């Protein structure tokens, strides 16, 4: 979206599935929403080639980068336009080990175990989790964050007007809490008329407002303080059921109501095709940004904890990763957390490879703070993107997910201290258990600590009693 009187950056990319000599014609196609005459200038046109190997290398360097925001110190490649937003995935941790008299403990062995990942990489969950023990074990052994696929939606909890039933949703929340799994609430409202409870679709405006207010108060209050986020209005760029019935500020009003009921919970605007489909002009990054800014500027929403929810339903045979990156860059300028909320990939021989490309791009982008994939075992009815067969053995897609879960954590590591009693290591964000021992003395110690994006480089001090 170009602004008058200034230069605007247009960026994106193409993927060529062949090798050889080619001619590339660069065209600028401009849609002008004005009858006034205007002059358009194009300058600094550049086309930079990347091999798949080079693109992956850039992603890996982004994951390892270390940035001190205040002093603007950079290691590796950074997104210069996002300096104030950069979220590193790792931090340098220094260990200093001494004896009780303060002298350095040279040669001490430090065993490091990451007990919990600091990056929310999760999976959608459905009602089969309530009754299927194998599904419960499969899920809890892998994921610590989730969204329910349908069970919290209005058409699931109030099929008949005035008769609410949260039995299944409550059971799923209990399972998640018992297993340390965080929950994104999905969703309070869906702006698509087709996805309303049958009795809601033809309510007159006054009755719809009364029913919607009761719904919002019920579901938000019921789970207040137990969720990490809510999709308050789902897909309000593609659809406008509530806007047509209740006015242009319907979404903004519902966000305000949810915020005042549960002010500590992050509220998402959830949308599709913003990162996955460059041909859909309804939900471009610029239009998404404009709509969310409108919601945040609504009276009473100044303190709202907002976040950007991008569904990520990729259906093209080859995902446009360059387009995905450009959309994330644009939305990253808002300074809000970005989550990929419902990532799945259409079937085909390249499904597993395409999913890996998408997940790596999301994880390596500094503005992305969480990813939830929408897939699961075939036994739980997941057919679009199946992660496990009926015996809960991983499919090729499931193998990709398991590989990345392991790759994006530090696992078990060990280091030894130098002559100063010091040792340094780069660790992923998360929770850690550390045990220190020395070969010359019969003594050891253990300590727990966290590595987070909020802290600068960490120094862990340990002292032997002997």
Automatic annotation (TrEMBL):
Is Membrane found in the keyword set? yes
| Record keywords | Carbohydrate metabolism, Hydrolase, Membrane, Polysaccharide degradation, Transmembrane, Transmembrane helix
Which Pfam families does the entry mention?
A: Glyco_hydro_10
Give the GO molecular function terms: endo-1,4-beta-xylanase activity
Q: Which SUPFAM superfamilies does this UniProt record tie to the protein?
A: (Trans)glycosidases
Top-rank taxon = Eukaryota
Which residues does the UniProt record annotate as the domain GH10?
103-404
Membrane-crossing segments per the record = 12-33, 69-86
Q: One GO biological process from the UniProt record?
A: polysaccharide catabolic process
- Which family, according to the similarity comment? Belongs to the glycosyl hydrolase 10 (cellulase F) family.
Full protein name:
GH10 domain-containing protein
Q: Which organism is it from?
A: Gossypium laxum
């Amino acid at each position: 979206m170009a602004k008058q009187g200034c230069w605007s950056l247009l960026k994106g990319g193409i993927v060529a599935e062949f090798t050889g000599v080619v001619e590339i014609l660069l065209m600028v196609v401009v849609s002008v929403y004005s009858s006034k005459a205007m002059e358009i200038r194009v300058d600094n046109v550049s086309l930079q080639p990347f091999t798949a190997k080079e693109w992956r290398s850039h992603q890996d360097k982004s994951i390892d980068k270390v940035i001190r925001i205040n002093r603007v110190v950079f290691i590796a490649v950074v997104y210069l336009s996002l300096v104030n937003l950069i979220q590193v995935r790792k931090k340098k941790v220094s260990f200093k080990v001494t004896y009780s008299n303060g002298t350095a403990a040279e040669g001490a062995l430090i065993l490091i175990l990451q007990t919990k990942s600091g990056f929310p990489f999760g999976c959608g969950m459905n009602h089969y989790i309530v009754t299927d023990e194998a599904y419960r074990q499969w899920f809890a052994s892998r994921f610590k964050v989730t969204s329910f696929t349908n069970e919290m939606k209005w058409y699931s909890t109030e099929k008949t007007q005035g008769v609410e039933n949260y039995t299944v949703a409550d059971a799923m929340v209990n399972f998640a809490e018992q297993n340390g799994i965080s929950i994104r609430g999905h969703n309070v409202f869906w702006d698509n008329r087709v996805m309303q409870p049958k009795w809601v679709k033809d309510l007159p405006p006054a009755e719809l407002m009364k029913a919607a207010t009761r719904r919002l108060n019920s579901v938000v209050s019921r789970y207040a303080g137990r969720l990490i986020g809510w999709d308050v209005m789902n897909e309000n760029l593609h659809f406008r059921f509530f806007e047509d019935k209740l006015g242009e500020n319907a979404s903004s009003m519902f966000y305000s109501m949810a915020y005042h009921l549960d002010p500590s919970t992050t509220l998402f605007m959830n949308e599709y095709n913003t990162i996955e489909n460059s041909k859909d002009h309804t939900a471009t990054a610029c239009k998404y940004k404009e709509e969310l800014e409108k919601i945040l500027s609504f009276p009473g929403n100044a303190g709202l904890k907002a976040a950007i929810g991008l569904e990520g339903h990729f259906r093209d045979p080859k995902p446009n990763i360059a387009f995905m990156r450009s959309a994330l860059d644009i939305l990253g300028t808002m300074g809000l957390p970005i989550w990929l909320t419902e990532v799945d990939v259409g079937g085909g021989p390249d499904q597993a490879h395409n999913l890996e490309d998408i997940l790596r791009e999301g994880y390596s982008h500094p503005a992305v703070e969480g990813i939830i994939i929408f897939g699961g075992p075939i036994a739980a009815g997941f057919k679009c993107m199946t992660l496990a067969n009926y015996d809960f053995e991983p499919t090729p897609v499931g193998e990709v997910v398991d590989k990345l879960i392991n790759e994006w954590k530090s696992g078990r590591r060990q280091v030894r201290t130098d002559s100063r009693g010091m040792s340094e290591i780069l660790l992923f964000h998360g929770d850690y258990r550390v045990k220190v021992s020395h070969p010359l003395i019969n003594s050891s110690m253990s300590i727990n600590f966290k590595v987070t994006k909020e802290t600068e480089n960490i120094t862990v001090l340990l002292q032997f009693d002997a």
